[in-house]
Design goal:
Elements lengths: L9 E7 L3 E3 L5 E10 L14 E4 L2 E2 L6 E5 L3 E10 L6 E6 L3 E2 L5 E2 L9 E5 L16
Amino acid sequence: MDVVAAPVPVLSNFAMDVTSVDVSSSGANVTVTWDVSDASGVTDQYLNYDCYFVWSNRYTAGVRPVRISGDDKNGTYRCIIPIPTSDIPGTYRFESGYWADVWGNVAPSGQGPQDFTLTIQNTNVEADAPVLSNFAM
């Protein structure tokens, strides 16, 4: 007997108000919007997962997404993500967290195009990893 997997919510139409911020002297807010659609409707069950920017093992402060238009079957969501003056410079990728429909079909975390990135500039913080040297046995 063939088993057909139920479709998960679909995320599309990602937009960001800026693609680069300089937080050397003051923090900034970055607004990200995207659409989520699902024939049976998305559930708020996973909206407690933050959306954020990630680069390697570095994360920006995350916030919970908010639906700003539409409904649970076809809505537009927004995150306003604060970028503090302590963030390490680099190119960060957006992640929107998990999304599920009312039947429990879950779209994986990390939704967002791979090239949907924010460049953070900050002359007050260095991004170099520690250098190990003088090993002895």
